[in-house]
Design a protein that fits this description.
Blueprint: E1 5-8, H1 10-14, H2 19-27, E2 32-37, E3 52-55, H3 56-59, H4 66-76, E4 83-87, H5 90-98, E5 102-105, H6 109-119
Parallel strand pairs: 1-2, 1-4, 2-3, 4-5
C-alpha cells in the first residue's frame, strides 16, 4: 500500500518534541498532511506543515466518529484507505481504522517516528 496522507492529532501528538519535524519531513516528500483535533477551534501559531486543519468544534463531529476521518481525507483529496492517522488515544485510532485508515497509536515520539517512516518508506532517510 502506498500512503498519500498523514493525519495527526494535536495535543499529545503534534505537541510532542520531534513530531512537527516528522510531519514536515513526510510532507516534503509530496505526502498530504492534516491536523485533526477534537478542539473547539484550530490552535494558534501552527507551523506551515499542514494542507488541512480539521477541528470538531468547526465541523460538528468528533473523534472517534468515522465521519470526521472521512471529512479529513476528503479535504486532502485522498481516499481514506491511503491515509495514516496518528493519535495518543487508542479509541480514536480505532475510529480511524473503522473509517478505512491505517492507525498508529502514539506512545513515544521514537516509536511513532519509526512506524511512520516505515509506512511511508522513509526508513534510512
Amino acid at each position: 500500500m502506498e500512503y498519500a496522507a498523514l493525519i495527526v492529532d494535536y495535543a499529545g501528538v503534534f505537541t510532542e518534541a520531534g513530531v512537527p519535524e516528522l510531519v514536515a519531513r513526510v510532507r516534503s516528500t509530496g505526502v498530504r498532511t492534516a491536523l485533526l483535533s477534537n478542539a473547539d477551534r484550530a490552535p494558534r501559531g501552527l507551523p506551515d506543515v499542514f494542507d488541512a486543519v480539521v477541528v470538531s468544534g468547526e465541523v460538528g463531529v468528533a473523534k472517534p466518529d468515522p465521519e470526521i476521518f472521512r471529512q479529513a481525507a476528503a479535504l486532502l483529496g485522498v481516499p481514506q484507505e491511503r491515509c495514516v492517522f496518528v493519535d495518543d488515544v487508542a479509541d480514536y485510532v480505532r475510529g480511524a481504522v473503522r473509517a478505512g485508515m491505517t492507525g498508529v497509536h502514539h506512545m513515544t515520539t521514537e516509536s511513532t517516528v519509526e512506524e511512520v517512516d516505515i509506512l511511508f518508506g522513509l526508513s534510512g532517510n
